[in-house]
Amino acid sequence: MKRFSKKEIFSIPNLMGYFRILLIPVFCYLYITAETEREYLYAALVVLLSSLTDLFDGKIARRFHMVTELGKALDPIADKLTHAALAICLATRYPMMWVLIALMLVKEGYMGVMGLIFLKKGKTTWVFADEFYLLFRYQYSADFFYRLYKRIRKYHGFVTSLTQNVEELLKSDTARLMLANSEFLILLNQAATDRDELASLLNISENQLSYITNVGAGKGLIRCSGNLVPFENSFPKNTKLYRLMTTKPGEC
């Protein structure tokens, strides 16, 4: 069994995970004993604090290279315990919540079993979402995709999203948040309006913008962990592999 170092155990993101777990009994006590609106507000503030730690622990871990195996296990455990506590506490006031709890148990049980099977077999689920700007036309699909984007790594999976319609994608605040928090982006030639929006969102300098301005195929910028690197990857057209990969009908 792997032993974790003190640095891993007491890293800031992991400490935030421990804190989130410690907030669970605090919320349960405040909610169950609450009788006035002010007391319910205190319980809600505890949930808000827990949500903020959940939001920032992952960002801090990725930004400052503090991602650990312990953290990868701790984060989903803290999430599930928090969700379970919320659901059970609400069920004490609203009996219909027990139906939701039963569905949660079925879903989590299935995901857990399948995750263990895939891990044992060394399998990973890789989801490709082509023209994913379409998912942000409706709030329901946007929220679903955002949750998938955020949580799929906890189930040993990855999401790769592609689009040519950057202008419409950036109209969605949810999509902008996802792009800003993505660890790996490939930017190819962009229209003028798209370049301005992307430069503001991703902190791209004028010099760096030149690598996605009126450039040919196979040229652009790679953004990885906040770092921007220009690239050129021209692929020989007189090959069978190129004809297999190209999306231009006349070249197939």
Structural class: mainly alpha
Distance between the termini: 52 Å
Task: State which percent range the strand residues make up.
Answer: 5-15%
In which order are the strands of the major sheet placed? Answer: 3-4-5
Overall geometric form:
elongated
Give the biggest sheet. 3 strands, antiparallel
SSE ordering: HHHHHEHEHHEHHEEH
Helix content: 55-70%
Can you count the beta strands?
5
Number of helices: 11
Q: Please state the CA-atom Rg, rounded to the nearest Å.
A: 22 Å
- Mean pLDDT level: 85
Explain what this protein looks like in three dimensions.
The protein has 252 residues and is mostly helical. It contains eleven helices and five strands. The protein has helices at 6-9, 12-33, 37-63, 69-93, 97-121, 139-151, 166-169, 173-181, 192-202, 206-209, 240-245; strands spanning 125-130, 157-162, 184-187, 219-224, 227-232. Strands 3-4-5 form a three-stranded antiparallel sheet, with no helix packed on it. A hairpin with a 2-residue loop joins β4 (219-224) and β5 (227-232). α2 (12-33) packs antiparallel against α3 (37-63), α2 (12-33) runs parallel beside α4 and α4 (69-93) runs antiparallel to α5 (97-121). The N and C termini lie far apart (52 Å). 14% of the residues are buried.
